[in-house]
Description:
Elements: H1 2-11, H2 22-49, H3 54-58, H4 61-67, H5 84-89, H6 97-102, H7 109-112, E1 150-157, E2 162-169, E3 174-176, E4 183-185, E5 189-195, E6 202-209, E7 224-233, E8 238-246, E9 254-260, E10 268-273, E11 283-287, E12 293-299, E13 304-309, E14 322-324, E15 331-338, E16 341-347, E17 358-362, E18 370-373, E19 376-377, H8 381-385, E20 391-397, E21 404-411, E22 421-432, E23 447-452
Parallel strand pairs: 19-23
Antiparallel strand pairs: 1-2, 2-5, 3-4, 5-6, 7-8, 8-9, 9-10, 11-12, 12-13, 13-14, 15-16, 16-17, 17-18, 20-21, 21-22, 22-23
Helix pairs in contact: 1-2
The structure holds 2-acetamido-2-deoxy-beta-D-glucopyranose (2 copies).
Amino acid sequence: MRFKNKSRKPTTLRCNAGRRCSFSVLVWSLVGCLLLLNLYSFISQKDARRGGTHFHINQHPHIRELEEVEEENIQLPPPRKRSPRAAKRKPKRPTTLIEEFLDESSQLRNVFFPGQRTAIDPRKSSENDTYYYYPGRMWLDTEGNPIQAHGGGILYDQRTKMYYWYGEYKDGPTYHAHKKGAARVDVIGVGCYSSKDLWMWKNEGIVLAAEENDETHDLYKLNILERPKVIYNEKTGKYVMWMHIDDTNYTKASAGVATSDFPTGPFDYLYSKRPHGYDSRDMTVFKDEDGIAYLVYSSEDNSELHIGPLNEEYIDVTQAMRRVLVGQHREAPALFKHGGTYYMITSGCTGWAPNEARAHAAESILGPWETIGNPCIGGNKVFRDTTFFGQSTFVLPLPELPGSFIFMADRWNPADLRDSRYVWLPLRVAGPVDHPLEYNFGFPLWSRVSVYWHKRWRLPYRWQGKK
Length: 467
Ligand SMILES: *[C@@H]1O[C@H](CO)[C@@H](O)[C@H](O)[C@H]1NC(C)=O
Ligand SMILES: *[C@@H]1O[C@H](CO)[C@@H](O)[C@H](O)[C@H]1NC(C)=O
């Protein structure tokens, strides 16, 4: 592909005016070739720095397995009689897969939210099922209860050599606070689960609990607590949790902070604020290799993202802040890094309904950020246009497989939010992007970010819990 580009360029300098200009054509061709060769070697070096070209990696059988996508062929059900209740709420029969997905009385319900019988259950897994992820199925912890860690993130703790999965514990009834309010569950707290293999999860309890009585408290149960993320601060030895804090109507739009001496809590809630004085809703934190951590949040009514470094203790923002993806209306940011380049996956803003994911890339975390397209591969068109009926929440690097990550998404179930599902899929950073920019002469400045659809998959066997 690169070679083709390289040889094509000089031919575009062809002179049609006959021999008179052949000398200048020769000179300009040579100059062009040299320039392109230079650019080519610069790009190759960059690629090498990023951990080799996708060519070599593709040949690795483990990677091939991760990239072998499956297709989905879900047929819309034939017209049917609807219950009066459903008919009243939405008079017309759903005509698209997305409408079926959102219709709680849909005949396809079981396709998107399979029942208990097919749950991933580490207590009674056979040789055939051990370590396999089934995106969208119920996922039980080591006690047999559905994992409650929605909108979550994962921390790998060097001290305990364990993975900790934090997320919204939503095991309560779903209701609407008022007519126009979004479906909600009262705040219960932040759930924490531990694992050595990223598959079998032990419930470590609620590590930051809701406030039952004090209506003025940020964590009052009628408020909102979403997208908790935890990072470890080497200087203070504290585990620091950041989260989206809001009121029922999402008008407070703040970021909250809590800290703990242990990954399993309990976390002490410190405070919330509007970072840099701006509204802040969906958010994440990212700790860079140099120990500097950043807060990333949707702002200006979700029309743009803001990124800014935290202070040394990670318990506050600093004055520095950049607006990125301005006017692009993105939320649910999940940020990761590969070979010195920063990548991010975001969703659109359509409430609980799924929409198309986008990948973004940047040389500096503070931007500029370039949008490089929809990362989803496989399934079918509707699957790819809806992030596999999910919404991004976190991207977890697999340390022994450079360029490989787990993409974590939530498949929200607005009819019963506690029964929202997890969509975990392999993510790879490799290969050229779909639509190279004009000004880079057809050479990819970024690698493609790809999330591969699988009904069933597992991490490469060699890696499995054998660290
Ligand atoms: C495992 O899978 C094989 C082939 O699909 C099947 O024959 C076998 O019965 C399965 N074993 C268990 C314990 O489910
Ligand atoms: C939320 O909005 C509704 C409808 O506008 C209003 O009745 C209610 O008082 C608001 N609640 C809060 C906590 O602001």
